Amino acid sequence: MAKVNLSGNEAAAQAALSSGAKLIVGYPGTPSSEVIGSIWGKKYDGVTIEWSTNEKVAFEEAAACAWAGQRSIVTMKMSGLNVAYDAFISVVYSGCTGGMVVYVADDPGVSAGMPEQDIRGFALMSDVPVLEPSSVLESYTFVQYAFELSEAIQGPVIVRTVSNVSQSHALIELPEAHPIEPRKPHFVNDPFKYTKAGAKICMDQHRDLIARLAAAQVKLHKDGMHKLSLGKKGGKGIVTVGVTSAFLDESLELIKAAGADVEGISTLQLAATLPEATEEFAAMLDNCESILVLEENEPHVEKAISLQAFHEGKNVEIIGKLNGPLSRIGNYTAATCATGMAALFGVEFKMDTAAADDAESHCAARPIGVCAGCPHRGVYMGLIDAVKKLGYKKDEVIITGDIGCTILGSCPPFDCLWTEVAMGASIAMAQGFTHAEWPTPVFATIGDSTFIHAGMPPLVNAVQNEVPITVVIMDNGWTSMTGMQVNPNTAEEFQYPGESRTRVDVVDIVKGLGVKQLWVVDPYDLPKMTDTIVEAAKLPGVKVIVSRRECAIQAGRRKIKYGLSVVDQEKCINCKRCINTTGCAAIVSDENGVHINPSQCNGCGICTYVCPVNAIEKKEV
Amino acid sequence: MANYNVYLVGVGGQGILTIADMIMRAAQALDVPANYYPTKGMAQRGGFVKAQLKLGAETVGPDIRPLGADLGIAMELSESLKSIRYIKPGGTLVVYGYKWQPTAVMLGKAPYPTREDVEKAAADAGLKLVFLDPADQPEDTADNIYLLAATMRHSGLGEVVSEEAITEAIKARWPKGAERNMRSFEAGLAVE
Ligand SMILES: Cc1ncc(C[n+]2csc(CCOP(=O)(O)OP(=O)(O)O)c2C)c(N)n1
Ligand code: SF4
Ligand code: SF4
Fold this sequence. Notes:
The complex is a heterodimer of chains A (about 625) and B (about 190). With about 625 residues, chain A is an alpha/beta fold.
């Protein structure tokens, strides 16, 4: 059969479909978004595909579907599990009857700018199996297996992927599908299983939860999921998990070249950190005098095997991060693994990259910033102008930021957002600064998707307690930073193609939450934006400004241009204020002076307001 | 087949990932094992973009270790310096010398490397440098396909995936632009 080219996330989506998932839900987040992204807009009989308002909602939907005996998968980035965790811990206590897979993408090495958290910690805290694919192929087979495991133990199973596995594309032979017969929903009213009404219920469920993990341990062992290869008795051993298994061959080659004798080595490639591979660990501890554990981020496997060695009275040296040269920070390559092996074999392993250090020191810094024509630009510039008009200095006025493209106001040339914490935090933090008696008005900025995800509760809080803050909701109609997914506020025509889904307008939400002082402003109209912010800041109570204009990239995909701005070379005095204040990539300065690149400019017109000699004119196109 | 690793760098919007994608499609047609790991950054254009391609091995970790690539392909002058760490001594670096200047550079507030800096860095690292000056590129040709073709000629990539498989992949991907793309490819192959 011809091989197919799939990414890890795409493979997971295909596995979910072929395993009979009835519900595929999630909230976008790099590097997990393509599971749903790759099947979005397509029709599969009897399958619901949905971007939910947030991960907790998505998780709860998936849980109920699995309680009704169906199969479901919920996808998110690691930060999403923090949001869903309240429901997660409760649901795993209950277990499920259908198959439930929680697909979570960690990001060791931080390719997407969030804490480098390791969600295996959550799995340990809740006794849930966590399968860790090491490749695109395993992204398929492990999701498939996770459904079977989940139904076998009657509890949810996590599949933990990482950036380089989920984002890799590989040529794979599509594994055989394991389809199921269509099922009728089945759910019985059983408070002992599905509520937490009382200490006895909770403790009984806790006991059952622990028993489920034990059952998973037996099943993984029986199914040969962990790959154990025992070598010479009394020799050396290496334990890998997830993507580090994929680096094993290459790093062994490296360490052989460095003079290590790797003949007779024992290896254990784990399919899961939890349940602990107790039997396989015992075999390794029996066979080896020293064992290297290769795992990215936190030393969970290392701790487990060390503890087992202690209990079994095995005097085996365990090398890793607690004891050894490996780091809890960053993602691993074959070179990192070889560094660990150098400690295991007692050889020297070094790579000379001095020439590269020198080369990189000459590299130009390339800070990220908003796109040419981005509507957020009008908000940052409006805020900066308004602060000045209100008689404050820029470094006196706190403007909290939130997650998404909206945070790019913390980058040059704007440098105007002070904080980035977690989805929705901008609005709550602004209240905290106000309670701290910060002497100037305090502003919050937040995108439409983030507002609906977690910004509504803090806004209600501000309304109830009459906290005087000004919130700018940067409504660009999409969840853009993660690759332009739809959210409830996205125009109806772009909601699920071919299905009837309803748009929920953020303006209606804000009104419904009891906000009385509300403005809707086009951020391309910079003077209006500035004046509105000034007006709002002077008023008492909660003020909300909805800055409404579509993401420039999404509009650009439909070939929308609002005009074309042109620099009149006769008038231009080459002061470069347009570049300094807008940072728009369409404006270039070279030996011919300042001009605007017509292929990049979308005619937003923002730069026309800043030229001191009115040399920039917006033309119709 | 021997493993062949390619490290690609550029700026978002230039088409560097398309180069990797074409190699991937050629590998698929030829049944060469391949793993392609792009790092796109966020939604915006103009950010650093890299891609790591590992050809010829069934089981591989996605990332190329320092000094682990046989070939580097760079679409932007300054970013080319970020690939040096990953290329083996004796390996090849093909640089398309386009300058995509960050704002601070444009305003004269930050330095930007010269072609000589890149030449020196490649020499210090023991690499064979192939430098394409955009000024020499024929009119109306696609930058990335021009660069890919020059790479086919000047590196060992052609021994892993054939020229024919690459051109077939390009034609299949853009049936409409075939004429211009083939012209771009020919122009790249002609680079001495
Ligand atoms: C809990 C959590 N879930 C998901 C993400 C991933 N994420 C980062 S930015 C973003 C999109 C924000 O969209 P929006 O608020 O509309 O702003 P935009 O990017 O469109 O400007 C998401 C979903 C995250 N960082 N944290
Ligand atoms: S992707 Fe859209 S919202 Fe994000 S910076 Fe670009 S134009 Fe702005
Ligand atoms: S009008 Fe000005 S600010 Fe807007 S995209 Fe064009 S050049 Fe950039």
